[in-house]
């Protein structure tokens, strides 16, 4: 098995770069001091990092899975502003013992996630390290709408989500227990599939505030409530639980709770948004509550939730 | 001593974020899913990663030194396109044992390097990890000039550099030998000081090809030669050796060679560019050679050099 320690940096880049997708906005691609892009409108930019053993495990995720996830969670951040993603910059740190195939797989996963959206990997950097770290900066641009922040929800708005929740956590629970009972959930954990474009759709329908659900509905809705200085009241009976989460919970027995996974699980990357009235909510989205004057906090079924999603700084279980 | 493992992520961000500089181009700063920037012209984007024990050592560099260097090498990449830097995205991975002061120092170093140029840190991400990894993506925009790549040097062009070379390597040599004989060189290793704006100046003077000197003149000029498919001939007697490199070499004795450091040392981040004629070269730059039809290679004093700078994928000595 050839490892990246067996190759020099230029040789590795020569294998890696041609697998990366090109951006529709690209004027100059990778290989120079910087890439050059055409931007039409406001530039929207976000960054996320994935660290081995914290955000992914190599026993569970292939290089392509990690590339897919690194791209998708960043595309979702751009989408959550109501913007259109155009390009990624990717830095990869990896031990010399990392198989070349793992690294080339990462490029393939980036391509598979980005290419359907015209998004390119326009540059980056490679370095040795003692563990794998993938850092992605995503760029996008607004197309005729103002960027949608988390801060502009208004009292009386309805709260909605763009997809069913809990599948990623259900997949994680299976892998953690070494009991694979529902392959769809496992795949949605390894390769989250938010509908990129849902955020733009929300913006075009007049969303007042929006974010993507990366750390779980409870934690993220609490953030939106605080940013907008409103009380968000969610009715758990309205929260759409992904069928794969329900199937997984049923198959694993009484302990696990599909609704709890939908509320706190995270990593689904669907949109959470507020709209001025129910009739503005796009088809396919689900209303889960409403915004009120009051304390800047989240209520679930009338009470403040205690479970907060999770904290990526914990030294505890890698959750993905 | 408080470490970042003693704090939760939100509390750390609440201390870290206010120390970061704001961008002149900022419409929406950090804290949402993404930042929003105004862009006027082409967008220029580049990324670099710094890994503990490979690109810096905590015994040598404070958090502020690392923040400074992470910013400066990225600003130089944007400058090397003839563009004006506007904003950075920064992801930081660090062990739970990292002192909070080190992390806050990183923010201070980013600010000190960026603020004079109106460059902001507009977003990023934090994660635990087993070693410190700082990944920076820099954004900039062209102001009325075309981006200057490495590929458009022409036969007959003169080759010039925008500053004296070898000081960073001279600083490294002192730290590696635990013999501090010239503090200016040490400081230029810990905090490289390329003149940001030299690249734009080169572009306005009609530079045909340009890059910043990160891996040493020999290695980087070889890259420019290959990208432009020309022979670059450098006369080592013309290469400007930084006085601090000369002083360091003199003080350390016969072995070290200030000219060799200037040729292969790297990390100075001055500009290397080609111009159509000597009279086009901006004041303060130094002509070091010329471009010819011929093999796509670098010649130094008529011969192909064997020393190549260094390879960041080596498991060998961390060089900065």
Automatic annotation (TrEMBL), chains A, B:
Its EC number is 2.7.4.16. It catalyses: thiamine phosphate + ATP = thiamine diphosphate + ADP. HAMAP family: TMP_kinase. Residues 31-141 form the PurM-like N-terminal domain. Catalyzes the ATP-dependent phosphorylation of thiamine-monophosphate (TMP) to form thiamine-pyrophosphate (TPP), the active form of vitamin B1. ATP binds at residues 124-125, 150, 214. InterPro entries: PurM-like_C_sf, PurM-like_N, PurM-like_N_sf, ThiL-like. This is Thiamine-monophosphate kinase. Reaction mechanism of ThiL seems to utilize a direct, inline transfer of the gamma-phosphate of ATP to TMP rather than a phosphorylated enzyme intermediate. It is an enzyme of class 2 (transferase). It holds the Pfam family AIRS. It comes from the Bacteria. Mg(2+) 5 binds at residue 215. Mg(2+) 2 binds at residues 48, 77. Mg(2+) 1 binds at residues 48, 125. Mg(2+) 3 binds at residues 33, 77, 212. Keywords: ATP-binding, Kinase, Magnesium, Metal-binding, Nucleotide-binding, Thiamine biosynthesis, Transferase. One of its GO terms (molecular function) is magnesium ion binding. Pathway: Cofactor biosynthesis; thiamine diphosphate biosynthesis; thiamine diphosphate from thiamine phosphate: step 1/1. GO terms for biological process: thiamine biosynthetic process; thiamine diphosphate biosynthetic process.
